[in-house]
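Data deposition worksheet. Section B asks for the primary sequence of the deposited chain exactly as it was used as input, without tags or linkers unless they were present during the calculation. Section C holds the resulting structure in token form. Section D is free text for depositor observations; keep each observation to a single sentence. Incomplete worksheets are returned to the depositor.
Section A, Depositor: J.P.
Section B:
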Amino acid sequence: MKCYCNRFGSKLLNIPNATPVTVTTVGTPYRILPDQTDGQTDAAQDYRFVSNLNFVGGSGTPAAQLIIQGSVDGVLWFDVSLGTNRTAAGVYPEVIDTPTGLLMPWVRAKVAVAGTTPPSIDATIDIVSTGPFQLSAS
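Section C:
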């Protein structure tokens, strides 16, 4: 079992409750830069995504889902991990795991919303790891 407490983390997405969204929203793309001085190989470094989704309102089958996307070049994006598809109002904390714990060199978060009248969503997603890393927008 890997421990993430008192480890390393960065904010991947922040949609504040003061400015919720009602459309599918894609966060800033970041390149993951593992620390090369920690003695841990990149392949052994494990990542998780700690999220909180606040779902309010909507009609006509409203839904919201947090999605983690990866890219090898920062241009072409793939869904690498999906949060639970939510269909009812509520606050949903969730740890989103990648199938292998590994990611592509680039990462971003996406909030997908649906419905005749989409719900109002605010959300945060933090990326946490068992080793040090940085996120770079370039």
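Section D:
The chain has a mean pLDDT of 86.
Residues 60 and 116 are 5 Å apart (CA to CA).
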